[in-house]
Amino acid sequence: MADGALAVFGGAGGMAAAVPCRDGFAGVAPVGSYPPNVFGLYDMIGNVWEWTQDCYVAPYPASAPRDGRAYEVAGECPRRAVRGGSWISAAFRNRVTWRGRDPEDQMLHGLGAGVLALGFGFPARAQESAGFGAMIAIAPDGAVHFTCPSSEMGQGTQETLARLVAEELDCDWARMQVLLPWADRAFINPGMGKQMTANSATTVGYFLPLRRAGAAARMMLMQAGAGRGGVAGEQVSA
Length: 238
Prior knowledge:
A hairpin with a 3-residue loop joins β7 and β8. By secondary structure, the protein is of the alpha+beta class. The strands form three sheets. Strands 5-4-3-6 form a four-stranded mixed β-sheet, with no helix packed on it. Residues 1-16 and 118-123 have low confidence and may be disordered. Helix content is 17%, strand content 16%.
């Protein structure tokens, strides 16, 4: 559309409708792109549908808990409730009171989940650690801190990426510490153009960048060691 506008589809009554959208994202926006609500929570309306634990039942049951507990049913729950609408939803669905419903194993570009962390912090890197970009830091005792750019979805991707770095660094795997990422452009998957874990694209997207980062860090350490020891670089090995 003109002026860089994007089109969002999803009109009332199931009819498609183009809606001008000039936020600069061709789909889901990165977490925290917009201000939080009055409770300090991000992306509760729009962007992605938020999964809930509630089993979807229509009409909404009068017996549903009113104290924050999830509504469950006896036996199997075929669909869970999703709320808040998404970037591809019609405007009237973008509110927390609107309920959608999807199977638990549904995977769509407009579905997500929010996490509320209370009193939680990521492990801090030691101030003396040597940093090699946003993902690799090495402490004076030789421990390697690797901030994995991808979330773990059960396929072992975080270990895979960490081993790519460890192999190029030629470091002790037992001294490798894997940290979780935060929302930052430094963690964008080069193959997808955004920070996300999906479509079996993690290893493919990060394979070469992480190997190069690990190899570059090893070379810098070897050069530093050669300089400190007063020897030629080719005399130093990892």
